[in-house]
């Protein structure tokens, strides 16, 4: 079973079967719906504005809450679904609207911010079930180059604007009384959920029952101290697929639970590929050898750059991406080797100093990978001391 199978077969109300990690993953994918004009806007949205930031949901109704059926508007479908799997996000919406488990859930407090100049892409909404619980959901990365640029910025700066907005959003919506408060998201949304919870006031933090981060990356080293994590340690439910790349990036003190996926490699990042049994995921004992190798290589490689050096490398990479003519991240990720070749070719046409920066950054990555591969082979060779 996967998420869509779960929605098609799990009919028990939340009073009978409490909110679980699969429910969180399902709602995290509704966060990928562009809900302007459908989900009521956060009333405090003006307090989120920095000069020049675009509030994308200005046309959203200002009060109340809606059901998932209210989002079934075919005229909005052409631009409604975002992310790398928009068709599955659409199927998820249809399944939520049909589900007896979710049909009485209300959605409210939509906030969407986008700022190319400040490299900001942020969206969040709150799901409420009667007076039983509220789930504060954060959107993962859309396909915009702005959103992906902000992801890369996380490697050398903290906080990025979306993290600051996430903390402010949780503080704004958590003041309403509910019996149970959950926070969560997938990919970048998982990072934002963890950041917001860790930065929340003691009063809000005490109310949080669970923080769900589904293959969400960690944080730049030093963003949080071990003591910060200790305040929520037992309440953070961190899941990654067995071939995880994104969810193992950077620093996190929350031990991940490894989920079995039907896909391979980077395609496992999609929660729609994660296996479900009953009311939870199917868990494995550990990451694959390949995922552990990738984690070790990327961790060592990123540690070799100062914040200033990492910023220069990221600037150089996105200059090459823009020179390639790519309109958004889907052009690169769906283009495979051809897209990579196109960026590499574009890099030849950019400023020579910028090109040299890229080449200098990639050289140690190759060397680190080769060394880890050699050590891996040596450790399996009979009589080896490695």
UniProtKB/TrEMBL annotation:
InterPro entries per the record? Answer: AB_hydrolase_fold, Mbeg1-like
* Stated name of the protein: DUF2974 domain-containing protein
- Write down the SUPFAM superfamilies for this protein, in alphabetical order: alpha/beta-Hydrolases (SSF53474)
Lineage, opening ranks = Bacteria, Bacillati, Actinomycetota, Coriobacteriia, Eggerthellales
Write down a Pfam family by its short name: Mbeg1-like
Q: Which organism is it from?
A: Gordonibacter massiliensis (ex Traore et al. 2017)
């Amino acid at each position: 079973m996967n998420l869509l199978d779960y929605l098609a077969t799990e009919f028990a109300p939340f009073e009978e079967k409490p909110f679980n990690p699969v429910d969180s993953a399902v709602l995290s994918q509704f966060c990928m719906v562009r809900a302007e004009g459908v989900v009521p806007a956060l009333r405090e949205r003006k307090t989120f504005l920095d000069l020049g930031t675009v509030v994308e949901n200005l046309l959203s109704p200002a009060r109340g809450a809606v059901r998932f059926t209210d989002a079934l508007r075919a005229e909005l479908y052409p631009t409604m679904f975002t992310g790398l799997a928009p068709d599955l996000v659409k199927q998820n919406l249809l399944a939520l609207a049909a589900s007896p488990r979710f049909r009485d859930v209300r959605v409210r407090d939509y906030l969407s911010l986008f700022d190319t100049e400040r490299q900001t892409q942020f969206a969040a909404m709150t799901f409420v079930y009667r007076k039983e619980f509220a789930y504060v959901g954060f959107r993962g990365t859309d396909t915009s180059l702005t959103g992906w640029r902000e992801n890369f910025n996380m490697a050398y700066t903290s906080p990025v604007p979306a993290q600051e907005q996430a903390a402010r959003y949780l503080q704004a919506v958590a003041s309403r009384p509910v019996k149970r408060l959950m926070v969560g998201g997938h990919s970048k949304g998982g990072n934002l959920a963890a950041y917001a919870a860790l930065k929340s006031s003691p009063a809000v933090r005490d109310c949080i029952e669970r923080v769900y981060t589904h293959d969400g990356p960690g944080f730049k080293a030093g963003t949080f101290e071990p003591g910060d994590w200790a305040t929520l340690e037992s309440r953070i439910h961190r899941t990654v697929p067995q071939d995880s790349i994104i969810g193992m990036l950077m620093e996190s003190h929350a031990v991940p639970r490894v989920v079995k996926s039907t896909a391979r490699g980077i395609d496992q990042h999609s929660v729609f590929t994660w296996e479900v049994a009953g009311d939870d995921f199917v868990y494995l004992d550990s990451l694959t050898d390949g995922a552990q190798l990738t984690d070790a290589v990327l961790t060592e490689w990123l540690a070799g750059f100062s914040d200033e050096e990492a910023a220069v490398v990221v600037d150089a990479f996105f200059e090459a991406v823009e020179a390639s003519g790519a309109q958004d991240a889907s052009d690169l990720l769906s283009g495979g080797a051809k897209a990579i070749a196109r960026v590499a070719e574009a890099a030849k046409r950019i400023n020579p100093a910028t090109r040299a920066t890229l080449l200098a950054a990639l050289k140690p990555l190759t060397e680190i990978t080769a060394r880890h591969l050699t050590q891996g082979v040596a450790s399996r060779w009979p009589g080896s001391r490695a």
